[in-house]
Specification:
By secondary structure, the chain is α/β, with parallel strands linked by helices. About 30% of the residues lie in helices and about 25% in strands. The strands form 6 sheets. Strands 2-1-10-9-11-12-13-14-15 form a 9-stranded mixed sheet. A 4-stranded parallel sheet has the order 4-3-5-6, with helices on both faces. Strands 16-17-19-20 form a 4-stranded antiparallel sheet, with no helix packed on it.
Amino acid sequence: MNANLYNLFQSRFPADLDDCWCETEDQHYYSWRDLERGTAKIANLLSSCDLPVGSRIAAQVEKSPEALMLYLATIRAGFVYLPLNTAYRASEMDYFINDATPAVVVCSPQNFGWVSQLAFKAGTRHVFTLDTPHAGKNSGSLLSRAATHSDKFKTLEKNPDDLAAILYTSGTTGRSKGAMLTHHNLASNIQTLQTYWQWQKGDVLLHALPLFHIHGLFVAAHGALMNGSKMIFLSKFDSAAVINQLPRSSIFMGVPTYYTRLLSDPKFNLECCATMRLFISGSAPLLSETFHQFITRTGHTILERYGMSETAMLTSNPYQGTRKAGTVGLPLPDVSVHIINQAGDQCKSDEIGDIQVKGPNVFSGYWNMPEKTAEEFTTDGYFKTGDVGYFDADGYLSIVGRSKDLIISGGYNVYPKEIESEIDALASVMESAVIGIPHTDFGEAVIAIVVLHKGEKLSEESVIQTLKNCIANFKVPKQVYFIDELPRNTMGKVQKNILRETYTKQ
């Protein structure tokens, strides 16, 4: 049997391929037949490039139905998809391209100049451009080249353990790591979620998430594809646009920021949610205050779940049954979750420890990093997530922290070490510490605490502006504080817990 993930999705397409697959906010309509033909054309284009087996196809493009077609065409043709955040700048893209060595890079037309220079220098064979082909815009070279190819394509045979995608997920130290996900990793997880969340015939997904992130691509889009469901595609989250489309939808997935912004809009009420069946939250902690306000305003209880780039989804509050505020629910079927204390033993209820996981959804390892891969797995095959949490007496998991100091702001992962390195490179700076503090909108806000060399002066505005020129905006600290020295323990390690306590109170 062909284990290609596209083959699974294709088997779930509706009987009438002229049904709507995707509708954009500017009312462009795509049928399932358009999806089938469009992915065939792009798959034929990629195949015509005579690429080596297992070639990576990197994409840094704006969200569009065509961008989703590119992803599906990539796996359909047997290649490996590498989604990259559209906010990444040249120095970040240079690292990813050199590390993953993609045979093909697809970027926005406006970025072709600098992206192609980086790609060709790294040995990439082809660079295409892609833009949404609406409003008179140039759709880019990918679609114009694909248009000349056949709209028939036989999906390539793949084994379950063949690589389907690489998602980069950094740690707080060292270089970024590419998590390798197989066709089976992704297929097993979305099959589980379709059953666990009880997707129904006729469901319509309101999709407002980005496509370069596991949440928008492997949870939301995969869910609709697996169910043969229509998607209403918003290019980005906008509370007014979401409220306008909710009466035509039944499922919505978002990060906590989306929900706080909806609640701040007086037009968001019970009436506009009348057709909704399920609101799902993830990618960042959902405040209990938001959880309860949402129930009061809409009559709906948000379903919170937990996953990672390396594992897809791991736990979820139940579709039927109690959804507990402040928890990420129960382990999904076929997923084993252990909480391990410092002695290496499994924790009892309410005892905090390190979260370790095992299941068919857990990634196959880090790209070109066998030693790091071995380090992150236990001898009995459990992946060390780096998160810290506990089970309550009912078996619900709560995440209380991240052992690797990961910050999740607005649903995006922010790794302090990367930002600290940029700040420390400034001539006036002796050292810095970057932390996350609770924020009602973003879940966590990034802030920086900086120590200057004696006699030096530096403003908060200049630090922020410098960072905006070299890293993605979501990583840039919301505030910068200057102090005389960082708190340290007897071993010289910066005590970020003290910093968090101090600046959370301010």
